Fold this sequence. Notes:
The protein is an alpha+beta fold. The protein folds into three domains: 4-103, Rossmann fold; 132-201, 2-Layer Sandwich (Dna Ligase, domain 1), CATH 3.30.1490.20; 207-446, ATP-grasp fold, B domain (D-amino Acid Aminotransferase, Chain A, domain 1, 2-Layer Sandwich). The protein has helices spanning 11-24, 63-73, 89-97, 107-114, 116-125, 141-151, 174-192, 249-265, 297-304, 308-316, 396-409, 419-426, 429-432, 440-446, and strands at residues 4-7, 27-32, 47-50, 77-79, 101-102, 155-159, 169-171, 197-201, 207-215, 221-233, 236-242, 270-278, 284-290, 333-340, 342-343, 349-350, 353-354, 357-359, 366-369, 377-378, 385-393, 411-413. The longest helix is centred in the middle third of the chain and has 19 residues, at 174-192. The protein is globular, with a radius of gyration of 22 Å. The mean pLDDT is 96. The structure holds ligand MV4. Ligand MV4 binds next to strand 8, strand 12 and strand 13.
Amino acid sequence: xxxxxxxxxxGEIALRIIRACREMGIETVAVYSEGDRDxxxxxxxxxxxxxxxxxxxxxxLNIKQIISAAEVGNVQAIHPGYGFLSENAHFAEVCRxxxxxxxxxxxxxxxxxxxxxxxxxxxxxxxxxxxxxxxxLLTTEQEALETAERIGYPVLIKATAGGxxxxxxxxxxxxxxxxxxKQAAQEAEKAFKNAGVYLxxxxxxxxxxxxxxxADQHGNAVHLWERDCSLQRKHQKLVEESPAPxxxxxxxxxxxxxxVRLVQTAGYYNAGTVEFLVDQDNQYYFIEVNARIQVEHxxxxxxxxxxxxxxxxxxxAGEELSLRxxxxxxxxxxxxxxxxxxxxxxxxxxxxxxxxxxxLPGGPGVRxxxxxxxxxxxxxxYDSMIGKLIVHRESRAESxxxxxxxxxxFEIEGIKTTIPLLRKIFNHSAFSDFQVDTTxxxxxxxx
Length: 447
Ligand code: MV4
């Protein structure tokens, strides 16, 4: 096992990783930008190094600075958290070349799955349903038109280097398809330096269901059931839960088995998420793999009782998975909400500043994963998420009741947050009646 790990991230996930390491008896080296210099969680690491100015590209994305800190700090491994360098195959390769373990998948699998067309091909070879679409990248306008003819409109043009909704556009007829393919390719070239685009049938009002997997370096892989993350606004998730509501057990089992086949076929290890769209007839289609630990991992931890960060570290150290699939149960219902420093009355613009008052909810079933405290200054440079409120109860109805009362207990002053919107969601009958899909927030409150 590692004796010392560098945490290449900030905020709540940096603290989450430090906490796991402390419980495992592993020392931690934190890194921070000038914008995070006063953050309290840094004092919980054994050492902390400043790696540059506040701007992320000069600090948390600066590979040279992070590797230098790892050398000076004498660590055996780097945990990248989520965002920043977590899905950068080049960074994973640099770590390996420097004889530092990267706590994530092998860079080869990361690169293959990071390319969406290649990921689709791997899914097909693993016998996992994909969305009907083009046979690989589009090469000619004629091919785009023929594919649309075969699968039927509407279709979605996606960038192979995209993901998370970046660079997608819908086409409903031949004219918008021809124009859309050209524009999408140009945008993709600009944004990702890769102009490759492909077509998929556009699934209307899908649910977003993703499967948590864990795989070791010895060929073992298990799933930890699924999460529904359908409640989003502009591709930012707001609410995540496990198990997926309103999905028959047989479908859940099928999706989860598909995810395991896919990661085994890809030569993947560590924690990962396989994303699916589920249509109104409960048909599911693979869309992409997230090759990292995700923000919403706590709901899976709550229903399975398994600490995903500790598992990631053990797998990266070369240990065999001690979990057997038949022992991994999904107990009760867990729901997470993201609390962002944003102003709901001002188009969710970031609301940085000092937290002048903070009273946190607690009691049975409540978990709060956050690095913030009264007096904390929310810096303007990064993601606006300041914490995650997670509840775990025996049933979904009880989880919803628990979340409502936890949100009512939550008092925060000095900054604006998404809590008022979250309260509205948990008081909306469509949410308790399971009638939500990825278009719910926009349909209900944003138009
Ligand atoms: C889709 C889709 C409909 N049909 N693909 C958006 C993020 C990326 N992970 C995939 N996304 C979508 N892909 C097909 N063929 C609709 C979305 C989508 C979406 C997916 C999940 C959660 C929220 C979403 C919001 C808008 C669009």
